[in-house]
TrEMBL record:
<dbReference type="InterPro" id="IPR013083">
    <property type="entry name" value="Znf_RING/FYVE/PHD"/>
</dbReference>
<comment type="pathway">
    <text>Protein modification; protein ubiquitination.</text>
</comment>
<protein>
    <recommendedName>
        <fullName>RBR-type E3 ubiquitin transferase</fullName>
        <ecNumber>2.3.2.31</ecNumber>
    </recommendedName>
</protein>
<keyword id="KW-0677">Repeat</keyword>
<dbReference type="InterPro" id="IPR002867">
    <property type="entry name" value="IBR_dom"/>
</dbReference>
<keyword id="KW-0833">Ubl conjugation pathway</keyword>
<dbReference type="Pfam" id="PF21235">
    <property type="entry name" value="UBA_ARI1"/>
</dbReference>
<dbReference type="InterPro" id="IPR048962">
    <property type="entry name" value="ARIH1-like_UBL"/>
</dbReference>
<dbReference type="InterPro" id="IPR001876">
    <property type="entry name" value="Znf_RanBP2"/>
</dbReference>
<comment type="similarity">
    <text>Belongs to the RBR family. Ariadne subfamily.</text>
</comment>
<keyword id="KW-0808">Transferase</keyword>
<feature type="domain" description="RING-type">
    <location>
        <begin position="82"/>
        <end position="330"/>
    </location>
</feature>
<keyword id="KW-0863">Zinc-finger</keyword>
<dbReference type="InterPro" id="IPR031127">
    <property type="entry name" value="E3_UB_ligase_RBR"/>
</dbReference>
<keyword id="KW-0479">Metal-binding</keyword>
<dbReference type="InterPro" id="IPR044066">
    <property type="entry name" value="TRIAD_supradom"/>
</dbReference>
<dbReference type="Pfam" id="PF01485">
    <property type="entry name" value="IBR"/>
</dbReference>
Length: 534
């Protein structure tokens, strides 16, 4: 569901990342005639920026090597002493099993045990991984420690150093941003070109599709949550969804309790039942347990008030003596209805997302267990279609969160959004059914007839991807097509519909234009098919 452009990321295995690092080292070593050990030190010193290393070596090779600690330092006046004992523990080689080890650029000798302690203490821990160079253990020495020094140490230290360098390439890389796929048990790594990411919202929220099938947001590492922002997605998953689901459960439990007719229990009112309210007459605290089914509450002081808005009974009486509903009650019940519908729609869409995941997984397993006569191109076409269905289902699910956060007080936008959701769902259902039929035909028929089907599936895949690209774009732009204007419900001779802006008389409770079945539906001009997607 992206425009036809070069992908700024690559999905790699750990071995492929290691090979990529090795090639970078070999290139610097071969072009500038330096050892692989020196190339590693230089690249790590410049955070694996080959262009920066090349520029430094071309401009002044000796200066570049000296700054990174790859040139001999001033001889130590106590150098003769370091030839016979370790400068840390002051033991001679006869007192431990091994030899004294120093870098090629200084005369500071240390035993292997002291080298091991030095590396573990200052460089190998995760919090020290931002170090750009490993230096000699001597406090006053800047000589660089590279593979040519590490290879003199025991094998465990050599293995630890290799892991350290690979981790430095992954986490301290200035050019590539490399992260592990957040899916459980996935071993793939994602390499993202930082030069393509100028900290813009669009690139930071890039939709990444891993080879394992997991789709996630590059910026926050949550599952792909377009069209909502990372903050909205985080708030929904870790706060609002839990609260709304809990309130919904409490509402379903209380629904079995006998209540007076025409009294609607809302999530907001349920939350109030477990707290205490305050009488507006005497400010005395009142326990609302068991009283939420009555419109008005009588306090011990004799004052009566409506417990939802904390206003007295007198304020709720009209001149005729009849009671009127307050705006607070309308707002509470409307918000409760919206929140309940968003949660229910989210859960229903989640079921479809899981089914799409299951369909893709079943197809992959069927290809492995029972190889068919389908060509690799056929399998790619079907897999791409199944993956697109999953992405589209996920977008529709997250559009429910968009509904919750961005259309709370704009009725016209909510109606238009739900129209777009229904239309998008219909398109995905139709494509999923077509794909299922043609997939079954393809697994049982490899004739020329299936070649025609492949073309049909490819075209519909592209069309659906284009449609959802514009669907996401329309939501991210704030549904600007809908012109919403606020009006005072009790001012003037007419009230104006916030969907079509038609002026209705106060005798009409519903808009006469929007309720007209002969009225033309909204045009989907912004959802026309765009450029061909990949």
């Amino acid at each position: 569901m992206e425009k036809d452009q070069k992908s700024p990321y690559h999905v790699l295995t750990k071995d492929e990342v290691r090979e990529k690092m090795k090639k970078q080292i070999d290139d610097i070593s071969g072009v500038f005639s330096i050892s692989e050990s020196d190339a590693i030190v230089l690249l790590k010193y410049h955070r694996w920026d080959s262009m920066k290393v090349s520029d430094c070596l071309v401009e002044n090779k000796e200066k570049a090597l000296l700054e990174s600690g790859l040139r001999s330092v001033v001889p130590d006046p106590n150098g003769e002493l370091s030839l016979v004992l370790c400068l840390f523990c002051f033991k001679t080689p006869s007192e431990f099993d091994g030899d004294l080890v120093s870098t090629p650029f200084c005369s500071h000798n240390f035993c292997t045990a002291c080298w091991n302690n030095h590396l573990k203490r200052f460089f190998y821990p995760a919090e020290k991984n931002n170090q750009t160079a490993i230096s000699c253990p001597h406090p006053a020495c800047r000589a660089a420690v590279g593979p040519d020094t590490i290879e003199k140490l025991p094998v465990p230290d050599q293995d630890m150093y290799k892991k350290y360098i690979l981790k430095s390439y992954r986490e301290g890389n200035k050019v590539l941003d490399i992260k592990k796929c957040p899916a459980r048990d996935c071993r793939y790594l994602i390499a993202f070109q930082k030069e393509n990411n100028d900290d813009g919202e669009e690139d930071c929220s890039l939709n990444v599709v891993c080879l394992c099938g997991h789709i996630f947001c590059w910026r926050c590492m949550l599952e792909s949550h377009r069209p909502v922002t990372c903050n909205n997605a985080s708030d929904w998953l870790y706060k609002d969804l839990k609260i709304l689901s809990k309130v919904s459960d409490e509402s379903s439990k209380l629904s079995s309790i006998p209540a007076r007719k025409n009294v609607v229990l809302s999530p907001s009112s349920i939350r109030r039942t477990i707290t205490k309210t305050c009488c507006p007459h005497c400010l005395r605290s009142e326990n609302m347990h068991g009283k939420q089914y009555s419109l008005f509450v009588t306090c011990t002081c004799g004052g009566r008030y409506y417990w939802r808005c904390m206003q007295s009974e007198k304020d709720h009486k009209e001149a005729s003596g009849l009671y009127k509903l307050c705006n607070v009650q309308r707002t509470v019940e409307r918000e409760a209805e919206v929140k309940d519908s968003c949660v229910e729609h989210w859960k229903a869409c989640g079921v479809l997302v899981e089914k799409a995941k299951s369909d893709l997984k079943d197809f992959e397993e069927s290809i492995i267990e029972k190889p068919s006569d389908l060509t690799e191109k056929d399998i790619t076409i079907i897999r791409k279609g199944l993956m697109l269905v999953r992405q589209c289902r996920q977008v529709i699910q997250w559009s429910c969160v968009y509904d919750y956060y961005h259309a709370e007080y704009e009725t016209s936008k909510r109606e238009y959004l739900r129209f777009l959701q229904a239309n998008a769902t219909s398109l995905v259902d139709s494509f999923a059914n077509t794909l299922k039929e043609e997939k079954e035909r393809g697994l049982s028929d490899t004739s020329q007839e299936f070649c025609c089907v492949k073309h049909k599936v490819s075209v519909e895949t592209t069309d659906l991807g284009n449609h959802f690209y514009h669907f996401i774009k329309t939501l991210q732009e704030g549904l600007d097509d809908v012109k919403v204007k606020a009006y005072d419900n009790y001012g003037g001779l007419f009230w104006f519909c916030d969907r079509c802006t038609y002026g209705n008389t106060w005798f009409h409770k519903k808009c006469q234009v929007c309720c007209d079945d002969t009225a033309a539906p909204p045009e989907l001009s912004d959802l026309s098919m765009g450029d061909v997607m990949k």
